[in-house]
């Protein structure tokens, strides 16, 4: 069965600090991996997508990495801001890459404090 | 503005009283889907639709119905709600091969 596991479950950091969120997956064959940000009380919004051939991709202060050999991805947040407080969800489709067959991680809840 | 609109956003109802949660998207997406989100369990797919008149069960379809008569609308029907259907529900849409889901704002349902 396809699985996506995220760690840590929750994290509290001071504003301005960096943090790294982890995602391990067992989905095979692999096509891509997407990170979503979910603000409290809102729907998830896509941050970035990592395809098989990509190792690193940045979106502002967010940098995602992918190691297809170890089936791990990380999301690094640089110089955190209060607005980064949210849940971050890792999502991997089955080998077809289509939206209908997605495996969701349970998310990492990040809290950025003063 | 491109968006997925769900209604109602909040609802408290009683066991057995039929209810419908509406979902509408304005992005001409073929694919639409419903998820429920519960603490510690993440997002779980209820039903999905690849196009008009084409629907299929997700991972947790029991107690729910859907229909897709128009491309833009995908309502979720709870014929006889029970307390275990208390949850946060999300509708999402996408171009099927894109894989990027666009989510609605969520509907928080409480069944007493």
Q: What do these coordinates show?
A:
The complex is a heterodimer of chains A (114) and B (112). Chain A is mainly beta and 114 residues long. In chain A, 0% of the residues lie in helices and 55% in strands. Chain A has no helices and 11 strands. In chain A, a hairpin with a 6-residue loop joins strand 4 and strand 5 (45-51). Chain B is mostly beta strands and 112 residues long. In chain B, 0% of the residues lie in helices and 51% in strands. Chain B has strands at 4-7, 10-13, 19-25, 31-38, 42-51, 54-57, 65-66, 76-78, 87-94, 102-103, 107-111. In chain B, a hairpin with a 7-residue loop joins strand 9 and strand 10. Chain B starts with a strand and ends with a strand. At the A-B interface, strand 4, strand 5 and strand 9 of A face strand 5 and strand 9 of B.
Radius of gyration of chain B: 13 Å
Largest sheet of chain B, in brief, is: 7 strands, mixed
Largest sheet properties of chain A: 6 strands, mixed
* Amount of beta strand of chain B: over 45%
Termini distance of chain A? 41 Å
| DSSP strand content of chain A | over 45%
Topology overview:
The complex is a heterodimer of chains A (114) and B (112).
Chain A: E1 4-7, E2 10-14, E3 19-25, E4 32-38, E5 45-51, E6 56-59, E7 62-67, E8 72-77, E9 86-93, E10 102-104, E11 108-113
Parallel strand pairs in A: 2-11
Antiparallel strand pairs in A: 1-3, 3-8, 4-5, 4-9, 6-7, 7-8, 9-10, 9-11
Chain B: E1 4-7, E2 10-13, E3 19-25, E4 31-38, E5 42-51, E6 54-57, E7 65-66, E8 76-78, E9 87-94, E10 102-103, E11 107-111
Parallel strand pairs in B: 2-11
Antiparallel strand pairs in B: 1-3, 3-8, 4-5, 4-9, 5-6, 7-8, 9-10, 9-11
From the structure above, extract its key features.
heterodimer, A: 114 residues, mainly beta, 6-stranded mixed β-sheet, 5-stranded antiparallel β-sheet, 11 strands, 55% strand, B: 112 residues, 4-stranded antiparallel β-sheet
